[in-house]
């Protein structure tokens, strides 16, 4: 498990959370799961990170039975298909859970009863509500009180009207009497005042009647709306129940086939509820459309090399022959000792200002942009992170030590393992990074000089704006060079964003002259409209050594709710030019990668998809090749930046005037001044558009004055530090570093740099 060990669960208000072991099946037994008890519902997840998007199961405690088996085991069942067999780590923890569950059950039952009563007051056919009884009772009481007061007011108005009419008649009788002088004048004044009083009383009566009618009308509307919500909830519950039954059926069908082939000793594993079907996610809801793995790995016999060939003839296999011996030798034999590492001469920052809590509706901006290129959508800085795409590209060097080890490796196949691990490690920084980097301005550069600390220097330049393209060149004193030109194609699909990096990455090792190339996979940002944003990587990568012909095929499995595999899984096989497998790689792109040496391979596995046979690899014990560095303390308030990312935008002296560190809108955003950053961003973009129109005008004038139009570009822009050429390996048109930047930095000569900020 990659999660940190959680402390004993503690209640927080009406919520209770903690790790509990849950029975899964006869093969895996009890597995640790994260349980959350809230509002009378007990839900569980594989990890705490899944709480934002994937619930593995929920049971309503209002109708559930809770039984204790022994000191640590207890069971929760709702009398139907849901039964959870749970085990606490100790008796004290089990008692805490039992107490919390019983209290939650009593409260849920009480709330359901109150909801039933209030539903009867509302409508005889109203469905019982759960968790809303007190609110409904309060609403009904308020409506009855309002109706009673309005009736009292109406009665008072009737009395006023009755007595007012009598008074008017009496005054009329007095007015008919023959009176002279002051008495007659007084009677006329009283008559006028009585008439005004009657008119006012009638107006008040009419207003009260209108109010009563309006209150009754709205009461009926509220009643209908609440009834519709209840009916909708019932329909959703029925739909979810039906869906769960269908998933359960698929799960049983798959596990039935799997258990039929299980060995007898696996069936003898003790566990609760012998013979019953488990409701868990480890074998969860197997998706029949899920793509089967391309190969199977099984442990090799430690004494394999002592066996005779007759013992394994049924495998129709071939033994890997390699210039290395068959004993299990770690790849990390060339690691540098800590004493040889250079001590950093400059103390880098470890914090940036916390991200402000500004709310902005993404959908209000994106709803009119469906199907458009992401780079052409005007976005406020609220959705950005305070680094540019050039700096994000430089983050690929987070685990440069993998290339250092690869450069020291004497075997090309081992070197391939390190290069493949470096390829995967570049995605580990994206797992929580849902912010969008700033689109670089044309001519913008970024240098990352870590020569004295880590032995390498890196330079990026934005060489094209439409389509956006960035060229990157890094060279290390430890014997490797990395270069790439990446063009990002992105589409907004309504529910998710697809980001497709186009371009080839090159890694060249000076000592062995090995030249590797590979491409990037597709990045998908989910839950754009509703829910918590999360990122997935999917696709396949072929890492090719053009010098020796070695190849590594990596597969990034897309996330699937129905998948039985670990999330963010990556698998790969390292093969020589003849197609013979030497190493198997496995792991996740957000956590770690391991390698296993292949001792034997065969085509004797189960049939895969479309009737193809899977390759079976017998391997030695897996060893760790790479592991992600932990995030700094407080990373969640600093855009989930890694230790390297926190230093990328740190101000430095002597950089080019086009460096991303000097970009004003980006700096304002990092300082938390987002309104000013938005205004500055608009100014820079308008300045860039003005410069582009000027270049187009110059190109047009050049075209009109030339006798031939051939070879005249539409926009005569040339990159400052990279030149446009054809790649000799791939044949692609790329920008390659032409030199001169670091010399210009040493001399402080930046006269040829454009004014973009």
TrEMBL record:
Residues 13-106 form the PH domain. One of its GO terms (cellular component) is plasma membrane. It comes from the Eukaryota. One of its GO terms (molecular function) is sterol binding. Keywords: Coiled coil, Lipid transport, Lipid-binding, Membrane, Phosphoprotein, Transport. Residues 670-700 have a biased composition (Basic and acidic residues). It is a peripheral membrane protein. Residues 113-138, 257-281, 670-716 are annotated as: Disordered. Its main location: membrane. It is found in: Membrane. Residues 260-269 have a biased composition (Polar residues). Residues 219-253 form a coiled coil. The keyword Membrane applies. CDD domains: PH_OSBP_ORP4 (cd13284). The keyword Transport applies. Gene3D superfamilies: 2.40.160.120, Pleckstrin-homology domain (PH domain)/Phosphotyrosine-binding domain (PTB). One of its GO terms (biological process) is lipid transport. InterPro entries: OSBP_sf, Oxysterol-bd, Oxysterol-bd_CS, PH-like_dom_sf, PH_domain. PROSITE patterns: OSBP, PH_DOMAIN. Belongs to the OSBP family. This is Oxysterol-binding protein. The lineage of its organism: Eukaryota, Metazoa, Chordata, Craniata, Vertebrata.
């Amino acid at each position: 498990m990659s999660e940190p060990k959680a402390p004993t669960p503690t209640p927080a208000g009406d919520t209770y959370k903690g790790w509990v072991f849950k029975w899964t099946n006869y093969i895996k037994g009890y597995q640790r799961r994260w349980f959350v008890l809230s509002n009378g519902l007990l839900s569980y997840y594989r990890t705490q990170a899944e709480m934002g998007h994937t619930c593995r199961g929920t049971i309503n405690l209002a109708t559930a039975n809770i039984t204790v088996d022994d000191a640590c085991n207890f069971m929760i069942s709702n009398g139907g298909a849901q039964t959870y067999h749970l085990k606490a780590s100790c008796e004290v923890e089990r008692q805490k859970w039992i107490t919390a569950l019983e209290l939650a059950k009593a409260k849920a039952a009480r709330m359901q009863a109150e909801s039933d009563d209030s539903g009867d007051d509302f409508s005889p056919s109203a469905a019982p509500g759960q968790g809303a009884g007190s609110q409904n009772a309060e609403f009904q009481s308020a409506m009855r009180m309002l109706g009673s007061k309005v009736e009292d007011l109406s009665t008072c108005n009737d009395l006023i009207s009755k007595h007012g009419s009598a008074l008017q008649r009496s005054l009329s009788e007095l007015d008919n009497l023959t009176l002279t002088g002051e008495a007659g004048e007084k009677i006329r004044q009283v008559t006028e005042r009585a008439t005004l009083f009657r008119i006012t009383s009638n107006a008040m009566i009419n207003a009260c009647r209108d109010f009563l009618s309006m209150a009754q009308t709205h009461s009926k509307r509220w009643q209908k709306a609440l009834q519709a919500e209840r009916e909708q909830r019932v329909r959703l519950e029925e739909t979810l129940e039906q869906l769960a039954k269908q998933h359960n059926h698929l799960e049983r069908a798959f596990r039935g086939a799997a258990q039929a082939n299980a060995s007898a000793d696996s069936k003898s594993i003790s566990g609760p509820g012998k013979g019953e079907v488990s409701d868990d996610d480890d074998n969860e809801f197997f998706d029949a459309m899920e793509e089967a793995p391309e190969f199977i790995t099984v442990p090799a016999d430690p004494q394999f090399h002592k066996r005779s060939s007759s013992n394994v003839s049924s495998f129709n296999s071939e033994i890997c022959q390699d210039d290395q011996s068959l004993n299990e030798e770690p790849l990390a034999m060339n690691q540098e000792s800590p004493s040889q590492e250079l001590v950093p001469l400059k103390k880098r920052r470890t914090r940036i200002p916390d991200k402000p809590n500004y709310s902005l509706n993404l959908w209000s901006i994106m709803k009119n942009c469906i199907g458009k290129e992401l780079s052409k959508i005007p976005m406020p800085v609220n959705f950005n992170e305070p680094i540019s795409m050039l700096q994000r590209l430089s983050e690929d060097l987070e685990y440069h030590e993998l290339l250092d080890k690869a450069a020291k490796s004497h075997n090309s196949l081992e070197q391939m393992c390190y290069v493949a691990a470096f390829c995967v490690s570049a995605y580990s920084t994206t797992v929580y990074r849902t912010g969008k980097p700033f689109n670089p301005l044309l001519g913008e550069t970024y240098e990352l000089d870590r020569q004295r600390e880590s032995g390498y220097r890196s330079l990026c330049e934005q060489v094209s704006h439409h389509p956006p393209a960035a060229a990157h060149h890094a060279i290390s004193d430890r014997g490797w060079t990395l270069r790439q030109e990446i063009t990002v194609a992105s589409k907004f699909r309504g529910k998710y964003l697809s980001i497709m990096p186009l371009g080839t990455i090159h890694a060249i090792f000076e000592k062995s002259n090995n030249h590797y190339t590979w491409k990037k996979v597709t990045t998908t940002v989910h839950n754009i409209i509703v829910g918590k944003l999360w990122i997935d990587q999917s696709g396949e990568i072929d890492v090719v050594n053009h010098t020796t012909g070695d190849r590594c095929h990596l597969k990034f499995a897309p996330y699937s709710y129905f998948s039985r595999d670990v999330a963010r899984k990556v698998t790969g096989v390292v093969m020589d030019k003849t197609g013979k497998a030497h190493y198997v790689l496995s792991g996740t792109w957000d956590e770690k990668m391991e390698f296993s040496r292949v001792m034997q391979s065969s085509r004797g596995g189960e049939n895969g998809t479309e009737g193809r046979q899977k390759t079976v690899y017998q391997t030695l014990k897996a060893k760790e090749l790479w592991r992600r560095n932990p995030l700094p303390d407080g990373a969640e308030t600093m855009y989930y930046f890694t230790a390297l990312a926190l230093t990328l935008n740190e101000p430095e002296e002597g950089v080019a005037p086009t460096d991303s560190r000097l970009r004003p809108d980006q700096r304002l955003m990092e300082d938390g001044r987002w309104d000013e950053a938005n205004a500055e961003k608009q100014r820079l973009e308008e300045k860039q558009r003005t410069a582009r129109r000027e270049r187009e005008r110059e190109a047009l004038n050049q075209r009109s004055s030339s006798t031939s139009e051939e070879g005249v570009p539409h926009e005569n822009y040339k990159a400052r530090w990279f030149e446009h050429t054809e790649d000799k390996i791939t044949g692609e048109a790329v920008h390659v570093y032409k030199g001169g930047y670091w010399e210009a930095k040493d001399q402080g000569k930046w006269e040829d740099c454009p004014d973009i900020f």
